[in-house]
Design brief:
Strands 12, 13, 14, 15, 16, 17, 18 and 19 form an eight-stranded antiparallel β-sheet that branches. The chain has four domains: about 90 residues, Uridine Diphospho-n-acetylenolpyruvylglucosamine Reductase, domain 2; about 120 residues, 2-Layer Sandwich (Uridine Diphospho-n-acetylenolpyruvylglucosamine Reductase, domain 3); about 110 residues, Alpha-Beta Plaits (2-Layer Sandwich); about 80 residues, Alpha-Beta Plaits (2-Layer Sandwich), CATH 3.30.70.2740. Helices cover about 35% and strands about 20% of the residues. The chain has 16 helices and 19 strands. Helix 8 packs antiparallel against helix 10 and helix 8 runs antiparallel to helix 13. By secondary structure, it is of the alpha+beta class. Bound molecules: flavin-adenine dinucleotide. Flavin-adenine dinucleotide binds next to strand 3, helix 5 and strand 10.
Length: about 500
């Protein structure tokens, strides 16, 4: 167990900043006490640091005043929304010296406009993803990005992390659904990046800002694309006798003439854990299950389901069940989305990895994850957005166990290294944050990184917006640490 760092009292300039923030936000909009700040020490990762204060602005004007106060005091700020991020992006690390102010956008959560005629929505950043989904469904539309965290994660957070989800295979990640971003810089000025239309005008700064992870400023609004709700949906649950057969079935499904809209894989550990928790009806004798979905006109959906049934059988499926009702379909997906909740009954801590490999190497990667778990004596269960080769191994542990963190970090490091060795990459959807910051040098060379830094410096010249995140420090190739020293407690 690491010892909790000694409490730091605010310095003189910090005290002046806190007084100014109090004038802007009042008692209810500012947390400066130990307890109030403790809640904002970490996101859903275990990366952990103490903020100077937590600002909870209710309006754009208040947000601008908070950022101007930080700028004048030369104190960095960490944007935060629901805190479901898994890469420590919203963790207020202060490696640059000063402790940051966490600026939570959670209270700015209005659906500003549901523009049915133009199939788009203008939203505030704190609006929760699932709330937009429900509002769109009520008028026959649909917001496609559906991260498993969608009942809590916000749209601002989804923009900032370029979130993915279960239907990425055909609908793409968040970036494909963002028509405009309103980005507030460290001077409190809002820049409209693109105009909310399908067509792009000028340099694609909207594209640059999606996935900025708070390093370019604060997303204070966004215009999002809505799609027509599909007239028919077919959902299948298939059990396989081995991970290899399930992975081979995935390869066959995504190269067939009927591309599924979602292909999710869960290993036996995930299946058994979830079944006891969500009662989703998953086959308990299977070594792996696939969850498949086809959307569109009824005839196309039926044809897709037929193809999937045939290919599953050809790859040795031991069971194939088609959802017969909306309730059964919801139950099947509830199981997939309940994995993190189910884990809480099994282990006090988990470390959720996020790597990508080419689909054709999925089987190899799954084998490597199993071997890493055995080597580090850690229980690892894996769920996969299999259609796009995006694996999420959950490493289960209890941080109170002596020496366990070293094994957890070693497992995380080796999972990322294995993905890179298989021609994959370090993150599919959770982002880089602080967790994988020093791994970026394994993906891009120094010249590529210099361009990224130059763009960031041009868009955010103050250097105060989430300064320690995403872009690596001076760590050289091969020296990358899984998690920077001192970033967890
Ligand atoms: C159980 C579970 C399942 C998950 N499943 C998925 C999944 O399927 N797909 C997926 O992509 N992710 C998934 N995630 C990760 C997480 O939900 C996403 O990264 C999500 O987009 C984060 O949204 P948030 O509102 O919680 O943002 P936060 O965690 O608060 O912040 C995330 C990052 O965005 C920045 N940020 C937040 N709001 C703003 C803003 N308004 N302006 C600028 N920067 C901002 C923060 O500084 C930070 O760097 C999952 C997480 C959990 C816990």
């Amino acid at each position: 167990m690491r010892r909790r760092p000694a409490r730091r009292e605010p310095t003189g300039p910090e005290t002046s900043l806190l007084a100014r923030l109090h004038d802007v936000l009042g008692e209810d909009g500012l947390r400066t006490g130990r307890l109030g700040r403790a809640t904002y020490r970490r996101d859903a990762s275990f990366l952990n640091a103490e903020p100077l204060a937590v600002a909870l602005p209710r309006t754009r004007q208040e947000t601008a005043e908070v950022l101007r106060a930080c700028r004048d005091a030369r104190v960095p700020f960490t944007p935060r929304a629901a805190g479901t991020g898994l890469a420590g992006g919203a963790t207020p690390t202060g490696e640059a010296g000063a402790r940051p102010v966490v600026v939570s956008v959670a209270r700015m959560d209005r659906l500003r406009e549901l523009d049915v005629a133009n199939r788009r929505a203008w939203v505030e950043p704190g609006l929760v993803n699932a709330r937009l989904g429900r509002a769109a469904a009520a008028v026959g539309l649909r917001f496609a990005p559906d991260p498993a965290s969608q009942i809590a994660a916000t749209l601002g957070g989804n923009v900032a992390t370029n979130a993915g989800g279960i239907h990425v295979l055909t609908y793409g990640v968040m970036s494909q659904h963002v028509l405009a971003v309103e980005l507030m810089d460290a001077d409190g000025v809002v820049h409209l990046l693109d105009g909310g239309r399908a067509e792009q005008t000028g340099l694609d700064l909207r594209g640059v800002s999606v996935g900025g992870e708070g390093t370019l400023g604060i997303v204070v609004g966004a215009c999002l694309r809505l799609l027509p709700a599909p007239p028919a949906v077919g959902t299948l649950l298939a059990g396989f006798p081995s991970l290899e057969r399930a992975a081979a079935a995935v390869a066959a499904l995504v190269t067939s003439d009927r591309l599924p809209d979602a292909v999710e894989l869960m290993d036996a550990r995930a299946v058994s854990l979830v079944e006891g928790y969500a009662h989703a009806g998953y086959p308990q004798d299977a070594a792996a299950v696939l969850l498949l979905e086809y959307e569109g006109l009824p005839a196309g959906v039926d044809a897709g389901v037929g193809t999937a049934e045939r290919l599953a059988a050809e790859h040795g499926a031991t069971s194939v069940v088609r959802a017969e009702s909306a309730e059964q379909r919801a139950r099947i997906w509830k199981g997939r989305k309940a994995v993190a909740g189910a884990i809480a009954k099994r282990a006090p801590d988990f470390y959720l990895q996020d790597v990508v490999v080419p689909r054709s190497r999925l089987g190899e990667m799954l084998d490597r994850v199993v071997a890493i778990g055995e080597r580090e004596r850690l229980e690892i269960l894996t769920v996969v957005h299999a259609g796009d080769g995006n694996l999420h191994p959950f490493v289960l542990f209890d941080r109170r166990e002596d020496g366990v963190m070293e094994r957890v970090f070693a497992a995380g490091h080796d999972i990322v290294a294995a993905a890179l060795a298989l021609d994959g990459t370090i993150t599919g959807e959770h982002g880089v944050g602080i967790e994988k910051r020093d791994f970026l040098g394994e993906v891009f060379d120094a010249d590529d990184l210099a361009v990224q830094r130059a763009v960031r410096d041009a868009m955010e010249p103050s250097g105060l917006a989430n300064p320690d995140k995403v872009l690596p420090t001076t760590v050289g190739c091969g020296e990358a640490r899984m998690v920077p020293e001192g970033a967890w407690v």
